Amino acid sequence: MDKTQHSSKKTLHNGLYAAALAVVVLAAVILVNLVVRALPSQYTEYDISTSGMFTLSDTTQNLLGELDTDVQAYYLAISGEEDANVTRLLDRYAGASSHFSWQQRDPVLYPTLAEQYDGASTGSVVLVCGDKYEVLSYYGDLYAMDIEAYYYYGTQQYSFGAENALTSALAKVTRTASYRLYELAGHGETALGSDFLETLDAAGVTVDSLNLVTAGSIPADASVVLINAPLADVTADEAALLQAYVDGGGKLLAVTDFTLETPNLDGVLASCGMTRQPGLLVETDGDHYPYGMSPTYLLPDVASNEILAGMTAGMMVYTPIAQGIVSQDDSAYTHTDLLTTSLDAYSLENYATAETAQKADTDPVGSFAVATAAENEATGARVVWINCPNALQTAANQSTSGGNAQFLGSIVNWCNGQQTTAVISAKSMSAAALTVPAGAIIGLGVLFVFVLPIVCLIAGAVVCLVRRRR
């Protein structure tokens, strides 16, 4: 064999080897691409939006984790005109649970689909579970307009509220049990606002009014009885009915005003091992009350436990003008503090006559409970006491972007044996502006206009000289 033939065979062998290697590499790339595309979007797509538009909250993840029935979502959108924000979020839901799936349906190709679901139209998302369904409108549910900005400035600004809408709808279509909360009436109680009612509705809770004087008893279908900031004490007969209800394993939520004397209601709470801490709570830690507001307008620490499992991480609860709660160790009830002040707070005992909130030498200092849960495992009774009359008011809820409503929903769900409440803040559509401090503008200008160009010229000249000498 001459050298020419040997060289040709070697070249052919190398060529075949290179071709085979290229095929293997190409097949590997295709296989990796298929595997990556099959992975849920949360593992392949990163949410770099400033407001975390596509990052599922703990509330949503808890609900999807509990999901044990199949839910089908239909996104009604014309092909080529889909909203990428909506499709990406639906992908995240589908990736978080094998029981959730979604499909796009073009209204042109499926003209009768929208007719099957009342209120559905182009842009809507329909969630279907068995014979239940919920329709989410494009404007109003998936995107919420800032009413305040429109009212004051005449501009239409929208936030991305799709996660709250989807999670609330998901909770509604998958709930198999319904619950009924009765608001006690007849003592000047504060009725729950629409924001609290919507939260409870998402948790499958229906709210009715109850006047014990006229009704004479607590209805048998009562899952929770709410006493929300009464302006007068319950009567002795009403207290007896409430006491019997609790002793029989009932669920009671009491929101009280410490400036009013309510010995009959206090007696029911005392039977559950909870009494008042005399005085008005005052914070000294700036992180526990709003900036520029009175230190009696509390932003207490929110406990992380089973009772508040539905609370979204980082959400606050606003409790302006509150009093502490003392739990008795020798009670038949197990107590869990839900909202607590900082360790540096104090209880102003002479608040009724004090001209300022200045601490007196005799005022107790420490961490005080603003809300406490009591549970009797023997009877099944669950009682929650919030010693702040403003906790379940719309103004307080708006100050925390729904935190107070979610707090209520979590408590009611705990009373009902549930753990998920759907209240998720809308995500801002605006990117945070990058601002450069005035003092750095000159320095950055000199750096980019003069220093860097000169450095590049010098480096280029050095490279040219080195190459010429070679």
Fold and architecture overview:
This is GldG family protein. The chain crosses the membrane at residues 12-36, 438-466. Keywords: Membrane, Transmembrane, Transmembrane helix. The protein is an alpha/beta fold and 470 residues long. It contains 14 helices and 21 strands. An 8-stranded mixed sheet has the order 8-7-9-10-20-19-17-14, sandwiched between helices. The protein has a 4-stranded mixed sheet with strand order 2-1-3-4, covered by helices on one side. Helix 8 crosses helix 13 (403-415) and helix 10 (236-247) packs parallel to helix 11. The longest helix has 36 residues, at 3-38.
| Shape annotation | extended
- As residue ranges, the low-confidence spans are 431-435
Helix amount: 25-40%
- Strand sequence of the main sheet, in spatial order? 8-7-9-10-20-19-17-14
Mean pLDDT: 86
Q: Radius of gyration from the CA trace?
A: 31 Å
Per DSSP, what share of the residues sits in E-state strands of 2 or more residues? 15-25%
Specify the number of helices.
Answer: 14
Beginning-to-end CA distance, first to last residue: 44 Å
Largest sheet: 8 strands, mixed
Total strands: the figure is 21
**Structural class determined from secondary elements:** alpha/beta
